[in-house]
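Issue 218. Parser rejects a valid record. Input:
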Amino acid sequence: MAEATIWKGTQRKIGSVRSAAALGAIIALFAVVSTPSGARAQAAADRSAAGDRSDPGLDADEARTDAILGGNNYNNLYATAPGAEQQAVRPQIRLNGLVPLNFDSNPLELGSGSPSSWGTFPVVDLSAAAPLGDLPLRLSVSARSQFKRFSDTPDANVDRLTFSGRVQYVDPNNDQAFSPYFAITPRSSYLPTFSDQTEARQDFNLGFSKSFHLDGSLQPVPIAADTSAETVWSFGLTAFVQRRLRQPQLSSDAVGLIPSVRWTIARDWSASFGVELLGRWYEPDRFGHTSRDWEVLPIVTLEYVIPASLFGSENAAKMLGRPAIDLQGSRLEVWSTVPGVSFNQWEASATLKVGWRF
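Output the parser choked on:
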């Protein structure tokens, strides 16, 4: 019996080492593929139009996408995303697709005189998570492809590949616990359709999330490993510090706060609201000048999960990815110390969301 116990412990340790080694290898691969060649970096520096025009615009797109994905992505920005602070009891994989119709008041991210445009922003998101042995840690990785297209402002079209690796503390007996994490997120931008790489960013984030769950009477839900069935209201906060390496320049440091709230209205209806507050400090440019940006982005999202009965059965709904319709509105305000860089942007979207869990 003692020998069997020792053998099981050894197997768990070996599994933990293998998991950590695999995550390290994946992150290293992400770092390599996210760095553009010198020729491509120079081409991006000389490029005067569109694509990823600013860090705030990219940050906003990520925040809007995470607000729609919710608990379907393990590396979500929001503390109130369902399951954000739960342990993965076994290795799990989630595949999601978003097909939106967007209206953007300022797709070129200009200070004034920018045309508005209808567009679409399809997203494919794959994420996986697993426990790190018997430790209260969750390892997660994700890969995301994004295609941004506008009918009236093609200069704003851009394709992106985003990868992320995260190590997060989770209390296996409390899905409302204080949950610190460390994440590495390489991201590459391309001219359509994934033709020439124009930019590469690599983020190093150290942060935490914390949520509070209440029932329909606004009473605290008792501590447990999974309180999703009892939770009607969820209030949360995500905070992080970030180092962003960028080619072409400029690299930067940032501090972010994201308070959020989620309301489960009924079985098929839910709503969420979050505000991304972010300050970014850029390294000196070639003339030795530094700059700062401040970003405020409130986002409201309403989701309707199409009932399984409309597809004939629960199994049919699962095969189709449990389709849902998400309506979202947001307003991005950016203030910069660089003249002419400040801007604001309204965006509204209706999105078809599908997802599968394995």
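Fixed in the parser; the record now loads. Residues 1-51 have pLDDT under 50 and may be disordered.
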